[in-house]
Every structure is written in C-alpha cells, then in structure tokens.
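Ticket #4471: structure export looks truncated?
Reporter: QA, pipeline team
Priority: medium

Steps to reproduce: submit the single chain below to the structure queue and open the exported record.
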Amino acid sequence: MSIYARRNTFEVISLVFFLKVEASPSGIIALRSLPQSKMRNALRYIPPSTLIGAIAYPLFHIAGYRGETLIDRRNPRSAADKIKDLFLWVTVKGSIKPIIYGSILKINRLHRGSVESAVTSFPFAVMYGEQDYSISFVYLLKEEAVANSTYTLKDFERAAWGISRLGSRESIVSVESVKSGKAKIREGKEARTSYAFPFAGKEVEGEGTLQAVFDWRRGIGSYSNPQYILMFYPDGEVTVRGELKVVSLDGEEVVL
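Actual output as written to the record:
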C-alpha cells in the first residue's frame, strides 16, 4: 500500500496545539529509575514526565514562580504536576540508541565527628560517539485547557527555548530549534513513526525497546503508589498497526 493511499484512510477528529523541540545533549542522560535501592538504576530513554518537568521549570520562571516541589502533607510532588493537565501527549525520539553505564563510587562523609566511607553507584545513559546525535521532543497541548490557564502558546514556545536540562543536573541539553502551531489528530489503522508511543493494543513492525515509565497523567513526582505505562521506543522508524490516533508534524507521524 502506498503512503498516499494509507494516509487517506485516516479521519480527522480534532485539532491540537503542538511544540516540536530539537535539542543537542551533552552526551549523558542521567535519569534515575524510581523506586530503587542504594545501588541505583538509570532509565535508558527519556520518559514523558521528565519532558514535562523540563519545560515546566522555564515556564514557571515566566510566571515568576520558583518552586520545584509541592508539599501536600506527607505526599511531596513535583511542581510540574501543576501543569500536567495542559498536555494531551508528550513524546521523544533520539537519533541513536543510548548505552546504560554505571560507575561505582566510594564516598566519604563526616558523621558526629568521624569519617565514614560508603559505596554508591552513579548510573546514566551514554550517547557519546563519533556521529552527531540529537533529541526531538513533541508536546501536544490541549487548546481549551491552555486558553483557561495563565499561559499562552507563546509562553510555552518561550519556555521550550529555555529548556536546559532533563531531570538531573548532569543531563544538560542545548535547544537548537522550536516550532509551534496547530496540528490535526487523525484516526486510522497504520502509521510509521520514530517517536515513542504507548505499546498496549498495538502491533509493531521494526526494532525498538520497551520501557515502563510512570503514568504522568496520574501525577508527577509522587511515587508512593505509582502507575505505569509500557512505552515502545523505536530504533529508527517502525510501522505501527491498531486503532491509532496520529498527528503529522513536518512529514513525521506521532502516535498517541
């Protein structure tokens, strides 16, 4: 089936605001996997909650808010939880497959006047190599929710330019371009994508990695009773089949 014929099988169901961000990483993505023991684990791929946190920090600065944590009795949450309902979907693609690397470190501390030694781990995903590498983020925003918020699409565009890190302070990125506008959400049976998507109920033709991530729609930064989404992170472009919702941006398809 030709691409033209396949795309004609899609039915437009609604419009959505979008942001497409192209960024260059420093070579390390240090994203901790929670909950965990003292010997910590790292995520290989960037989860949606981290992408929301990355844009939330500069967005809050625009509004004059500097807090990073919300305290609700004994249930601390990320400040990014305040804006999670403005997003319909958030996803990412990378140009190369990261490699998990963990170094074992000896640390010293002073405790009641005595020096104590301990061993810990510093895990991260490495993207060093001879080739150029990049990361692309896609934010799909609910038009009505944004209109009823204190922010505008222009605020989100400015905040996207202000993204400087992904989670940990070691995960430095440099934003190279930001595109914004409106896109059509279509329903159909098949799509081709390089962006991560929820795996449940879909058939995939191509290579990639499954990774369980926190369901950001149920809360960001509170992990006392976490809910998970199983995400498929493609290696290159893959074909996805099922009951799909798809957005096309710059000739690329994003599966919700």
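Status: closed, not a bug. The export was complete when the record was re-opened. Leaving a note from the reviewer for reference: The domain at 11-255 is CATH 3.30.70.3120 (Alpha-Beta Plaits).
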